[in-house]
Amino acid sequence: MSVKTNPICCLCENMCECPYGNNPQPLRKKGVCCGHCNSTVILVRLGLIRWELAKYHIKNLKILYDSYMNQELELISKEDKNVLEL
Ligand SMILES: [Zn+2]
């Protein structure tokens, strides 16, 4: 009769508190992690989500800025045309 032990955490190498452990992705692709390391894994996942959101907002801000600048350039060129026509 073998005694089943909990898995070893792939991040800190301590024994996990439960027989299943936690998903360590994105810090490790294989293995399981303990509950203590899992709190760090969760923070990394949240950080990645925030980074993706930040990239999305930066892209949209650039589109808004570019369209604003294009309007400004059009207004300037219209004024220039008016000056030239006078
Ligand atoms: Zn750990």
List its salient traits.
binds zinc ion; 86 residues; 1 helix; mainly alpha
Give a brief outline of the structure:
With 86 residues, the protein is an all-alpha fold. It has one helix spanning 35-85. The radius of gyration is 27 Å and the shape is rod-shaped.
Based on CA inertia axes, which overall geometry fits?
rod-shaped
Share of helical residues: 55-70%
What is the distance, rounded to the nearest whole angstrom, between the alpha carbons of the first and last residues?
101 Å
Q: What structural class do the secondary elements suggest?
A: mainly alpha
Helix count from the secondary structure assignment = 1
Which compounds are bound in this model? zinc ion
Strand content: under 5%
Tally of extended strands? 0
Tell me about the largest β-sheet. Answer: none
Order of helices and strands: H
Q: Spans with pLDDT under 50 lasting ≥5 residues?
A: none
**Radius of gyration of CA atoms, rounded to a whole number:** 27 Å
Mean pLDDT across all amino acids: 86
Oligomer: single chain
